[in-house]
């Protein structure tokens, strides 16, 4: 392995091709580095269904144990199940997954005790530097007394905790199709949904890290086509799709039409605020719909706008004591889940909201879906900074138009807004636009794209 690990250590996690970019000896060094940077006496580790995950996970455990740290392995789990274990056991944790990336990839999502995030500014840089140093100079000195490696099953306790947060006992029976995409939802859904008034139609529940049916990324419309078709065939009330490590969920209604993650954010926010007496802060990133802060205010809450990315959301959750946070990417964060993201808890909220009234999901979410949105549109560009400067120059000084640079560039007026952000990892600019009607949105979208694409 090369000593420079910057290509695989990203802003929030480790991710790369196995064994080309990283392998088990390097995973062992990451384990030793994680033990040193966290200063923990004990940690918890879990992994997804990818063929390389068990070996990488065990190598990480060996590296940490050699430094005197006791390791609890929870085995196959979703990422939010690992966060549950970190929170419930109050231990730093490591999850081996590459989420929705293709089969040859793997990665590590790390957290401190209580599921607090580890990112570039909160320990990941130091972990990378130690692993680089040791990959050149040899493994660090082992502790005088090595730690133990033991196994523990947390699935039932994880499911019980989630069910304690959302009451589904009195909802009407619902027929729900769930597409696990051969990912970890196939492991968690049967246990979480057990005993609930749900007629479950499972799709692709077989754990298979080669993803034989479709990529486990429900934000790509191509990957929910099977779910949409099955929902209509079954006459189901709704469909739910999980990504590979099952920390994100995506929802379609009885017609098979996608429900925007912003509408889900607004719906869950209204329920969490009701649970908290109409008081509380709700975090949303700057490319969620205008409907999210509107619904939060209408329900007595305080919306707080942040940059895109889970480390920013989690930091604001902690700083403000927020009860809930949502992102356009279908990540949902809960104070009652250690400020961590869990698609499963969001799914339970949707089921409870739908089952608690008589109408279809399309009618329920209509009140939360108020504007015309473009979705995220990526453009490959040679000069990200130059294109952003061109957009700024085109709109600066226009009457009734405001600019802000919290994250990329946001241009807004009374009737529309759009945001352009550079990708951290690719030569892309990402555009999101929204307006009060479809015609205005299309005009603004196309105007921005013309400048972006030169």
From TrEMBL:
InterPro entries: A-D-PHexomutase_a/b/a-I (IPR005844), A-D-PHexomutase_a/b/a-I/II/III (IPR016055), A-D-PHexomutase_a/b/a-II (IPR005845), A-D-PHexomutase_a/b/a-III (IPR005846), A-D-PHexomutase_C (IPR005843), A-D-PHexomutase_C_sf (IPR036900), Alpha-D-phosphohexomutase_SF (IPR005841)
Keywords: Isomerase, Magnesium, Metal-binding, Phosphoprotein
One biological process term in Gene Ontology: carbohydrate metabolic process
Entry cofactors: Mg(2+)
Domain of life: Bacteria
Stretches assigned to the Alpha-D-phosphohexomutase C-terminal domain: 376-448
UniProt keyword annotation of Metal-binding present: yes
Molecular function via GO: intramolecular phosphotransferase activity; metal ion binding
Residue ranges annotated for the Alpha-D-phosphohexomutase alpha/beta/alpha domain, each copy included: 8-134, 157-256, 263-371
NCBIfam families in the cross-refs: PRK09542.1
Protein family membership: Belongs to the phosphohexose mutase family.
PANTHER family from the UniProt entry: PHOSPHOMANNOMUTASE (PTHR43771:SF1)
Protein name, per record: Phosphomannomutase/phosphoglucomutase
Organism: Streptomyces phyllanthi
